[in-house]
Amino acid sequence: MNTFLGVVPSESKMALPRFRTKEGERAVDLRRIVYLTAKSNYTQFYMEDGEEVITSHSLNIYVELLEQYGFIRIHKSHLVNGYHLKSCRLRPDRALKLPNGSVIEVARRRYLELKKKVKSQRLTS
Fold this sequence. Notes:
Layout: E1 3-8, E2 16-21, E3 24-27, E4 33-39, E5 42-47, E6 52-55, H1 59-66, E7 71-75, E8 78-81, E9 89-91, E10 95-97, E11 103-105, H2 111-124
Antiparallel strand pairs: 1-2, 2-3, 4-5, 4-8, 5-6, 7-8, 9-10, 10-11
C-alpha cells in the first residue's frame, strides 16, 4: 500500500505529493491526479494514466492540502482536480463524467457551483 508523505511546494508551480511505495519514495505532479475518493479512513487517488494509489489518510486531510491548488470538493466522498474540469461532462442527474469514463456523484448543494466552474473552464480553454 502506498502512503502519502507530504506536499512539497518548492518543486514546481503545482506542489507534488509524495508516495512511499515498495520501490521507494515517488513524487506525483498534481496535474496527473484526476480525482480522489474517500474509502473509509483511506483515500484513493485516480491518475490520468489509469493508475490508482491508496493512502492511509482521510479525504479531509487532502481537502485542506489541495483546495488551494484548484481541487474542488464536489461531494463528501469526492475531490476533483479543477485542472481536468474542461474534459469533464456534468450530467443533469447530478453526476460528473470524467475523462477516464468514470462517473461520480455530485452533492445536491454543490451542483450549481460546479456547473458554473465547468462552464467557465470551457470558456477559458
